[in-house]
Amino acid sequence: MRRPLYYIAPVLLVAACSAGPSSYIKEEDSPAATADSTNFSNDITALNSPSRKRVRTADVRCRVNNVFNAVSVMEHTVLGVNGMIAESTMQNELGQIQDVPYSADSLKRVQLYTPTANLTLRIPVASLDSVVHTLTSMATFIDSRTLKEDDRTLLYLRNALKNDAPAPAAINPAAKGTTLDVVTYKDEQHDAATDRRIENLAILDDVHYATFSVQLFQSERADIQVVVNPERITRAGFGTRILTALATGANVLSNLFLFILSCWPFVIVLIAAWFGYRKIAVKN
What is d(CA 271, CA 24) in angstroms, rounded to the nearest whole number? Predict the structure, then answer.
């Protein structure tokens, strides 16, 4: 009973090995087939044809009551429609800062700031309008709003037709050429075809998922905190300040004496001039 299994096992092994690579090749060829497909379900000559490759983008800059809450709502909304948060940043733009007296040894520091946020969202194109409406309903002031549609049908079709062209005949090296030149040419053609496929896949990705750029800000706010007054903390005691004042006065007096002493030539000249003037005045 066991001997037939020994004969069947090699056959099953060969069949499994032959089936594996073919399925793997089909999986590899599926993205390339998608990128090179020129089959459109509708007539693309119509401007509003569903088969046209239209890329939608939206940009909104608006003021909201609370930036943090608005960002949270937008992130949950995008994830709820199976979108992706490509970027989400929040920061405070600092404004004027001022210190005012508060108590004997402390100050009240007032820091003005403006909360801001920047979002880059990837949204299924069918849900773009509802997500934009969600944001504008939270806005108290819309600074700018831009909706764009970029038709890339012809670019997609050009790449697909180039890649769908029949393979060229075998190329033999010219008299002055070499086999290496032929290989280099084929590699360049393969790279160009790959780049066109990648570009078409990027177009399909942008067609299915719109890019929504959001800039949020709110009214200027004030952050108030009580801080230590460094001047009061570092000020010396009364006795130390008296000694410092006496030492400073002594230094000023000594500096004045040294200054007068350094001017003795001018003093001698003035005294001589005064005696000369008196002598002349007596003679007259």
Answer: 116
